[in-house]
Write a structure and sequence with these properties.
alpha/beta, 171 residues, two-stranded antiparallel ribbon, four-stranded parallel beta sheet, 16% strand
Amino acid sequence: MDEIKDQVSFGFETVSAREKVQRVKGVFGSVAPQYDIMNDLMSAGIHRLWKADMMARINPQPGEQLLDIAGGTGDVALSFLRRAASVAKRRTTACPAAKAVICDINPAMLMAGRARRDMQDWQADLSWVCGDAESLPFADNSADIVTIAFGIRNVAYRLKALSEFKRVLKP
């Protein structure tokens, strides 16, 4: 790409897209083990309300497949699975379990998520994939729901990522 056109925002700076990706990886790699606590402190816990509202809007159902991009430590995926399981319990017939894929560009964030105690009972329904939002390693039309929470701010080429989300989302 043309170096001038390859400039993106990183905080109050303009940097190359490649540099932004490297900086984002560095920041999240260094904070991964403390990320959930930091998120609570920095947002005064309000991020939990926003994510609960997102789950209410999604209305997870048994058998659905979630793809959570920039899913980090997995809190969105875990909420999705818990809500879908709650719906399944209220039904009178057996339902397939919901599944969730947590995709993040940072392996340290995925490792921190896998280490969470509250994830252990859900491992059969979870997949952890290291991947880039701008070039997703998933088949076309493979997810019922695609989410990205605050990670969208860290994507260098947002339109490219949104195009990828559309590609993997079932019609």
